[in-house]
Amino acid sequence: MSIITDYLDGARAALARLDPLAVQRLAMQIHSVWSAGGQVLLCGNGGSAANAIHLCNDLIYGVAPGSADGVRAIALCANQAVMTCLANDTAYDQVFAYQVAVHGRPGDLLIVFSGSGNSPNVVNALVEARRRGLRTAAVLGFSGGRCLALAEVAVHVPVDDMQIAEDCQQTIGHLVTRWLEANRPVRTAVEEPALAHL
Predict the structure, then answer these.
(1) What is the CATH superfamily name and number for domain 24-182?
(2) Nearest 5°: phi and psi at 4?
(3) What average pLDDT does range 44-58 have in this prediction?
(4) What percent of the chain has pLDDT over 90?
(5) CA 56/CA 107 separation, integer angstroms
(6) Sequence ranges of the domains in the chain
(7) Is the pLDDT of residue 196 over 60?
(8) Which of 25, 189, 195, 9 has its CA nearest to residue 111?
(9) Which helix (H) or strand (E) element contains residue 136?
(10) Is 53's pLDDT higher than 60?
């Protein structure tokens, strides 16, 4: 029983260190890109990849359920064919940076998820995004690593436990989704998407 209660105590303590203003800054950054019709790119490794994909889903649908007016978002870790191609033909530390170069445009936003903040492929993605004029954000655990200094906006929970860090990532994603759903950009009648085909 102590394993379970210790984990729950650790998770509660980590979430207590979560800065609500940092979460709001991330949500506002996404909102700005959403309002301008830009695209959000997301990436991470392992459990962080799963959390990046989860937030991508929530940005596309969860922020505006049933309206087809969600955020234009793509999870760079979701396409196995692309991931394995780039890992094989270039290098694994370039699998996200290469996709940022293809998909990213100035004013778009890259969000990286990382426990340590030091994974080379995630660090390289941030470097490439900055080089190409994208906005950058990171959701991080542990010390924040190199990503903490590279990201324009960072939500950092200093917890030295990978599983709890990933729990915090998912909670942050849900908080951002809830904020964006409550603060959807105002659209004119002309801009509203047609739903007849849905």
Answers:
(1) Glucose-6-phosphate isomerase like protein; domain 1 (3.40.50.10490)
(2) -70, -50
(3) 98
(4) 93
(5) 18
(6) 24-182
(7) no
(8) 25
(9) strand 135-140
(10) yes
